[in-house]
Amino acid sequence: MEEPSQLVMRLKGESGKNIWICGGADIVKQLVRADVIDQYFINVMPTILGGGIRLFDGLEKERKLKLIKTKSYNGITDLVYERRINAR
């Protein structure tokens, strides 16, 4: 079975449209480590949990992102970030 990061790299090499991945912390960590995510779509819900699985926990190095879009509705905020290439 193909690893998620290998699948994304293979699909990026093919012609076609965008690749949309909806997953939890484990999938996100694998793809961030492989540096194959170009855009991050993050939803902020107005709920204080006090605990849970951190989406970006355990990553070895910092990734620089650029906010490119926001949208708020019904108390929810959608954030869209792009990966910065050669960021300082």
Automatic annotation (TrEMBL):
Gene Ontology molecular function: any one: 5-amino-6-(5-phosphoribosylamino)uracil reductase activity
Domain Bacterial bifunctional deaminase-reductase C-terminal: 4-78
Pfam family, one: RibD_C
Stored SUPFAM superfamilies: Dihydrofolate reductase-like
Matches recorded under InterPro entries: DHFR-like_dom_sf, RibDG_C, Riboflavin_Biosynth_HTPR
Any GO BP: riboflavin biosynthetic process
Name of the protein described by the UniProt record: Bacterial bifunctional deaminase-reductase C-terminal domain-containing protein
